[in-house]
Design a protein that fits this description.
Layout: E1 5-8, E2 12-14, H1 31-36, E3 52-53, E4 58-59, E5 62-66, E6 71-76, E7 79-84, E8 91-98, E9 106-118, E10 129-138, E11 141-147, E12 155-167, E13 174-182, E14 184-198
């Protein structure tokens, strides 16, 4: 593989329900926020999957997984390669976006993926699958989530765009989007995008 290879060993470890990593206090959108809402360009920072943003001096893409480290992330030329290396069940590479225009808006998350996700023989007791992930965020809580519900979500496939369009809850302060891996094998992703499709009336 060409380009600089970035192998990331530091993982955020979580057990149970994944919570959102919000960076500001929850607040309801004002009337001016709603009036300012309009279809948007890509709202994601570092769509090349660079984890750290030097200008903002913070982690942009975060890794979360169940219990001990069982997945390895490699980023090369804007392609994220996520591979299972032990038998814990799930992993998420995710970004939290907070914007006053989001509550009540209809948004679209898309990303190109290819994968070889192996279900047999099973390596854990959870459903074996992988793909796109999204959730609403409020404070440090995530809810109304969806994990790898697209088709295909298991087996082998070549590069194709996967997308989901949904309406953000009115009480949310942001959204979380990313790549979900809950199987043996690997999944790759590139060109992630989050846009506002339409705004609340």
């Amino acid at each position: 593989m060409k380009g600089l290879k970035q192998v990331v060993w530091g993982l955020v470890v979580a057990v149970g329900v994944v919570s959102g990593c919000a960076v500001q206090s929850p607040s309801a959108p004002s009337a001016s926020d709603k009036q300012a809402c309009a279809p948007s360009d890509n709202m994601l920072i570092n769509p090349d999957f660079a984890l750290y943003d030097a200008e903002q001096q913070k982690m942009i893409w975060q890794q979360v997984q169940h219990a001990r480290k069982s997945f390895e992330l490699t980023v090369t030329d804007g392609v994220a390669h996520i591979e299972q290396i032990a038998n814990e069940p799930w992993y998420i590479l995710r970004q939290t976006v907070q914007d006053p225009r989001l509550p009540g808006a209809t948004v679209r998350f898309s990303v190109d993926t290819r994968a070889n996700l192996i279900a047999e023989p099973p390596v854990h007791g959870w459903e074996h699958k992988g793909g796109i992930y999204y959730a609403a965020a409020r404070g440090k809580r995530s809810y109304a989530s969806s994990a790898a519900e697209q088709t295909p979500n298991v087996g082998e496939w070549d590069w194709q765009e996967m997308s989901a369009t949904w309406t953000v809850p009115e009480d949310a302060t942001g959204v979380i989007v990313g790549i979900y891996h809950q199987a043996d094998g690997w999944i790759e992703a590139k060109n992630p995008s989050l846009t506002i499709v339409s705004c609340p009336e």
